[in-house]
Amino acid sequence: MNKNTYLNNGYDQVVADRERDFILRLVVAFVFIVIFFLLLFGRFVYLQIVKHDEYVVRANTNRISLVPTAPIRGEIVDVNGVVLAHNYPAYSLEIVPSKIEGKLDDTIEALRRYVDITEGDMRRFKKFRVEFRSYENIPLKLKLNPDEAANLAAQLYRFKGVEINARTFRSYRYPELMAHVLGYIGRISDSDQKRLETENASALYRGSTHIGKSGLERFYERQLHGVPGYQEVEKDAYGNIVHVLRSVPAKTGKTLRLAMDIRLQQEADRLMGDRRGAMVALNPQTGGVLAFVSKPSFDPNLFIDGIDTESWKGLNEDWQRPLINRVTQGLYPPGSTFKPFMGMALLESGKIDQNTIVPAPGAWSIPGSRHLFRDSVRRGHGSANLSKAIQVSSDTFFYRLGYELGIDKTSPYLAEFGLGEQTGIDLPHEYRGVLPSREWKAKRFAKAKNPRSREWQAAEMVSVSIGQGYNAYTPLQMAQATASLANDGVVYRPHLVKELLDHDRREITLIDPKPERTIPFKYDNFEYIKEAMSKVLKPGGTAHRIGHGLQYTMGGKTGTAQVVQIKQGASYNAAALAEQHRDHAWFISFAPLEKPQIAIAVLLENGGWGASAAPLARALTDYYLLTLKAGQLTGPVPKEPLLTNQEHVEVSQTAASAPVVRSETSPFKQAYDNIANIQAASGAVR
Question: Cis bond leading into 296, ω under 30°?
Answer without folding.
Answer: yes
